[in-house]
Each structure stands twice: as structure tokens, then as C-alpha cells.
Amino acid sequence: MEIKPSIFFRTPQEHLNNMWKNGERLPQSPPPRHVRVHLYVGWREGCDETEYFMSHAALKGDFPLEPSGYLSLARVKSKWGLENCAAIDPTRRMKFDSSKPDYLSPLAIKVLTDNSGVLKLFEPKPSNDTIAMREMRMQFVQKYDNAVFRFKEAAIGRLSDVLGVAVTVFICALRSRGRC
């Protein structure tokens, strides 16, 4: 089953921004029968681990394993709006090719996780259609955010005007009664 990103779902970059903005924290260790996953947005094969991983943040999450012990990459793609994803071979700094493209076996998970138990993934270069769709979505999101900002500013300004008038009326009423 091929999962295609949509203009109606967040992009990986939006998920990353939300993670930073909300300060989402994971528990110390993943729940039983889960694997901790870090998805490095923008990672490319051959990139030096210390150079890249230390200077870039990653999407982070705990994903349940199938009853067979396999990790469904379709679940990862669906959660973070990816067109595709693949594991990073930590030794060779290359894409790990699984015999089952939508799953990682228990053995692969064991071999590919680092000392801290984290499985590193990345999204291979998305298609031009996906890139265009993400750019279009970001334009819509930016326009929406700008409209919401302008609405909030207008509402706050109007509320300020109303409160200012109400306070003025209240003060005048107190003065006319001789309480001021």
C-alpha cells in the first residue's frame, strides 16, 4: 500500500516545527514492544553522522511493533506525512535496503539501532509532485496563519476600543454621582 502525502496533512517540516514549538518530550524509554525512531528531515546518504546529527533536530516518536516484531514503515510515513522512508545504516551512513520495503525485521531493528536504542530514519528524495504539493500547502498555511493573525489583531483592537469606552463611561458615571 503506497501512502502519498496530501495537501490536507502536515508536512514533515510542520511536524518538526510543532515538536519544537510544543516542546514535546518522550518518556525515558519507549513502551514495551515499541521502538524509538528519529527521522532526520533533509538527511542525505554519506552525510557524516557527527556533522549532521549533532547540528540538526529530528522528528522523534515511539512506534509499536507488529505482533511479528516487525516495524511498519507505513505507520511512520502516515504519522509524519512522508512519501517514503528508509533506515540509515549507522556504520556505512547509507540507506538500508530492507527485503520488505514497508517493514523492518526484528533483526534489522536490532542491527540498525544505536547504543541508545534509537532507530534512525530519513526520507529519500521525494518526487517532484510531492515537493510541489508541500510548497503549495506551505503557501496556504502561511496565508491562513496571516489571516488568523490579522483577525486576532483586529479583535484585540476592537476589544480595546470597547473596554476604553466602557471605562470612560464608568468613570463619568462615578463622577456624576460624586464618588470620584
Written description of the protein model:
With 180 residues, the chain is α+β, with helices and mostly antiparallel strands. The protein is 44% helix and 16% strand. The chain contains five helices and seven strands, in the order H-E-H-E-E-H-E-E-E-H-E-H. A five-stranded mixed sheet has the order 2-1-7-4-5. It has a two-stranded antiparallel ribbon with strand order 3-6. Strand 4 and strand 5 (94-96) form a beta hairpin. The longest helix has 49 residues, at 128-176. It is elongated, with a radius of gyration of 25 Å. The N and C termini lie far apart (75 Å). The model has no long low-confidence stretch (mean pLDDT 82).
What is the CA-atom radius of gyration, in angstroms?
A: 25 Å
Helix content: 40-55%
Unreliable stretches (pLDDT < 50, length at least 5) are none
C-alpha termini separation: 75 Å
- Mean of pLDDT: 82
Please summarize the sheet with the most strands.
5 strands, mixed
SSE-based structural type: alpha+beta
Annotation field: number of helices: 5
Question: How many DSSP E strands?
Answer: 7
Order of helices and strands: HEHEEHEEEHEH
3D shape: elongated
Strand order in space, largest sheet: 2-1-7-4-5
